[in-house]
Amino acid sequence: MTRTTEFLAFFAAQILETIGMWRIFVKCGKRGWLSVIPLFRQYYLGVCAGRDGEGRMLALLEAGVDASIVSCIFFEVGSLQYMVASFFFLLVMIPYTIFRIRVCFGLCDAFGRNRFWVVPWIVFDWLCALIWGLIPSFKTAEGYPFDEEEVAPELSGLEVDLDAPGLSINITRRTAMSFLKRKVLLRDIHLNIPMGHMVLLLGGSGSGKTTFLNAVTGYEKAKAVITLGDSDVYKQYNSMKYDIGFVPQQDLVRGSDTVYRTLSDAARLRLPADYTIDKRRNRINDVLDTFGLTPVKSSLVDKLSGGQRKRLSIAMEYISDPTLFILDEPDSGLDGVMARSLFEKLRSIANTGKIVIVITHTPDRVADLFDDVIVVAKDAMRTGRLAYYGNTIDAYEFFGKRSMEEILMSVNRKEEGGEGRADDFVRKYSALKAGGMA
Ligand SMILES: Nc1ncnc2c1ncn2[C@@H]1O[C@H](COP(=O)(O)OP(=O)(O)OP(=O)(O)O)[C@@H](O)[C@H]1O
After folding, report:
1. Residue to mutate, 210, 411, 413, ligand 1, most ligand atoms under 8 Å from C-beta
2. Residues 128, 30 share a domain
3. 268-302 pLDDT, tens digit each
4. CA 437, CA 435: separation in Å to the nearest integer?
5. Which atom of ligand 1 is nearest to the CA of 207?
6. How far is the CA of 226 from the centre of ligand 1 (A)?
């Protein structure tokens, strides 16, 4: 193909695409002539797809793609300018394709078409634009433009007092990049947990419980201020490491070590360097006693029962005598009796003046052992929000439910089998707090 033919082919595709887009815009209730302006065309395609932000990004990226294509056509093949333009083209093509896919997905939803259409849209956009624009059976889906779910508003003024004793959490937001888009994982979580309280962290799958705990411990920082007693967890992260214990879901124990050896290794890692050997030995023996592991201290970890193994994992973190003790599903794989006995142990730890926060997927068998419950729920924008924090007894009344599992179902999204009322409760809870503060 000669340069002129290439240019004519590019130009013809643009014209055909414009015609198709004109009709698509009209079908979506927008002004057709907007398709004549190349960059507007991409933006309004995003608007038609119900993805304005992605449409805006697509328009910007298309400017880059078009500029590099035109440059490649005009520069001498093999020249430095040609190579720079080609490199730039490859560079912008990656995000450009990703945003096109996202907009195409939205368009398929808007027109009630299978998402496999994204493939022809990416390869022959001008042809798809003509088909979707000119063929009458391609029309917007029933209910289009889809009603947006009403998202609970952003909150302000509900920050808790950082000087209050205990754990004060003021998370403004926690964001992460996902698929070239900044995603808000958590927003507006403000609460204060007094010392000596055992708190249940409740939330559906993907609601942000782990993200929340990571933000609280400073493991993955958020835009937040977290204080434990007089210390700022983020600013004094290194010195706080002995004060915060985190027990992950998965056991991190070696089967070929004895129980004592496992705890002794944990003590070496987690106790301050100035601990004498005697002090360290005493601490290990105390912890073995606390978790009922003294009779099996010489046994290999592989020979322990599920419950003993779990208690050992918890003991490893407890060795540093943390003020804040966090456990992610410590009862997974345990039967009701073993789980109950484990949670009673955690209750007795809280009773010594520590803060214990626990995630469990079977809360009702141990709900009476908790003082408070934090309910984190995904709002309409899929952001983790605080739907409730307070006394467990008051929680039943607040949600109008009789069990923690029912509370969870009320905030879980409909597509997950829940009632999809997260935003209602976020609103209700913030009104309650604002009222309380007035
Ligand atoms: N670094 C990250 N980048 C992008 N998205 C993330 C990141 N971390 C978490 N997410 C997303 O944030 C949401 C919350 O994740 P999180 O692991 O906190 O949920 P969870 O409530 O602990 O779920 P589960 O109970 O299933 O463990 C999920 O949609 C997850 O995909």
Report:
1. 210
2. yes
3. 888 888 888 888 899 999 999 988 899 998 889 89
4. 5
5. 21
6. 20
| Atom 16 of ligand 1: nearest residue by CA position | 208
Eight-class DSSP state of 112: T
Torsion of the alpha carbons at 349, 362, 216 and 152, rounded to the nearest 10:
-140
Number of domains making up the chain? 2
131 φ, ψ (degrees, to nearest 5): -60, -50
Query: β-strands 355-359, 324-328: how paired?
Result: parallel
Residue 212 CA to ligand 1 center (angstroms) comes to 9
* Each residue's pLDDT tens digit, 201-230: 999 888 999 999 999 999 899 999 999 988
Which CATH number do you get for residue 178?
Answer: 3.40.50.300
- Whether residue 191 sits in one domain with residue 96: no
State whether 114 and 189 are in the same domain.
Answer: no
Q: Which helix (H) or strand (E) holds 408?
A: helix 404-411
pTM of the model: 0.72
HSE at residue 183, side-chain half, CA atoms within 13 A, is 14
- Asked if residue 85 is part of any domain, the answer here is yes
Domain limits for position 193: 167-243+322-437
Determine which residue's CA is closest to atom 31 belonging to ligand 1: 206
For 337-340, which contacts have Cβ atoms below 8 Å and span 24 or more sequence positions?
A: 338/306, 338/307, 338/310, 339/365, 339/366, 340/365, 340/366
* 387 and 326 both lie in a single domain: yes
Q: Residue 437 above 50 pLDDT?
A: no
Q: How much distance in Å is there from the Cα of 206 to the middle of ligand 1?
A: 5
Asked if residue 273 belongs to a domain, the reply is no
Ligand 1 pocket test, pick from 211, 214, 326, 362 with the greatest ligand atom count within 8 Å of Cβ, gives: 211
Q: What residue ranges line ligand 1, CB within 6 angstroms?
A: 176, 178, 183, 185, 203, 205-211
DSSP string, 160-172: PPTTSSSEEEEEE
295 domain residue, yes or no: no
Residues 85 and 20 in one domain: yes
39/171 same-domain check? no
Contact 356, 350 (CB under 8 A): yes
Residue 406 lies in a domain: yes
What ranges make up the beta strands (E) of 166-211? 167-178, 181-193, 198-202
